[in-house]
């Protein structure tokens, strides 16, 4: 209850202090965090590029010697991959068409059942009016 003063909450003091140039120290900490994280990401990206270059330099002779195997393999892999994508796309389209046809057939059947029920109801009402 000592947090309240005359029915209102006391204002908590801010943890920031003002430096000589008038900027709060939290802004300085934010800038420092930004610089450190940017530096780490720059180092990691540099390591990635260096590893790629070293791997390419080390594997270049093997790639040059075995290119007659890799080119047909790449062509076959490309054709198989595009064929699989085509088949998947064809299957999705077939599923959509079948779904649309089923919805149309069911809608027509439902409309027929509703009309049949209304016809029977009207016939029953007209028959009851005759008596």
UniProtKB/TrEMBL annotation:
Keyword set includes Cell wall biogenesis/degradation: no
Amino acid composition bias (Polar residues), ranges on this chain: 14-23
Record key words, sorted: Lipid droplet, Membrane, Transmembrane, Transmembrane helix
Keyword Nuclease: no
A Pfam family assignment: Oleosin
Compartment list: Lipid droplet; Membrane
TM spans (from-to): 33-63, 69-102
Topology with respect to the bilayer: Multi-pass membrane protein
Annotated region (Disordered), positions in chain: 1-23
InterPro entries, sorted: Oleosin (IPR000136)
Cellular component GO terms held in the UniProt record: membrane; monolayer-surrounded lipid storage body
GO biological process entries: lipid storage; post-embryonic development; reproductive structure development
Similarity remark: Belongs to the oleosin family.
Record's protein name: Oleosin
Organism for this UniProt entry: Centaurea solstitialis (yellow star-thistle)
């Amino acid at each position: 209850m000592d947090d309240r003063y005359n029915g209102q909450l006391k204002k908590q003091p801010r943890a920031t202090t003002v430096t000589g140039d008038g900027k709060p120290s939290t802004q300085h900490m934010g800038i420092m965090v930004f610089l450190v994280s940017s530096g780490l990401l720059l180092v990691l990206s540099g390591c990635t590029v260096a590893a790629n270059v070293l791997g390419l330099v080390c594997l270049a002779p093997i790639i040059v010697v075995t290119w007659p195997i890799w080119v047909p393999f790449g062509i076959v892999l490309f054709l198989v991959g595009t064929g699989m994508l085509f088949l998947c796309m064809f299957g999705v389209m077939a599923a959509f068409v079948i779904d649309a046809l089923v919805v149309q057939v069911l809608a027509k059947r439902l409309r027929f059942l509703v009309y049949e029920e209304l016809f029977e109801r009207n016939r029953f009402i007209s028959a009851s009016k005759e008596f």
